[in-house]
Design a protein that fits this description.
- The protein has about 90 residues and is mainly alpha-helical.
- It has a single domain, classed as Orthogonal Bundle (434 Repressor (Amino-terminal Domain)), CATH 1.10.260.40.
- It is about 65% helix and about 0% strand.
- Helix 2 crosses helix 3.
- The longest helix has 18 residues.
Length: about 90
């Protein structure tokens, strides 16, 4: 599994950003960003969310859970329809 510190550095470099520029956008010091990228300390959830929004990727990607940068956009209605269908099947078997 890829570690989040490598993902942060890769995203920054893929967007041709200097550490100072990204740190400023995140509202953190350059030293703090250096520590994140080196894996010395972990970013807060608010920093992770800011990174995801800035680079338009999912938190799953940044944290190394998934290898795709795409954000899944399943609708709540689709999820509810699936749940209702399952409940109706269970009712019929009872």
């Amino acid at each position: 599994m890829v570690k989040w510190n490598k993902r942060i550095k890769d995203l920054r470099e893929d967007h041709d950003m200097k550490q100072e520029d990204l740190a400023n956008k995140l509202g953190i010091s350059k030293r703090t960003l250096l520590r994140y990228e080196a894996g010395v300390c972990e970013p807060t959830i608010s920093v992770l969310i800011a990174l995801a929004m800035l680079f338009d990727v999912s938190l799953d990607y940044i944290t190394g859970i998934k290898d795709t940068t795409e954000i899944e956009t399943t609708s709540i209605k689709d999820d509810l329809d699936e749940i209702i269908t399952k409940i109706e099947k269970i009712k019929r078997t009872l």
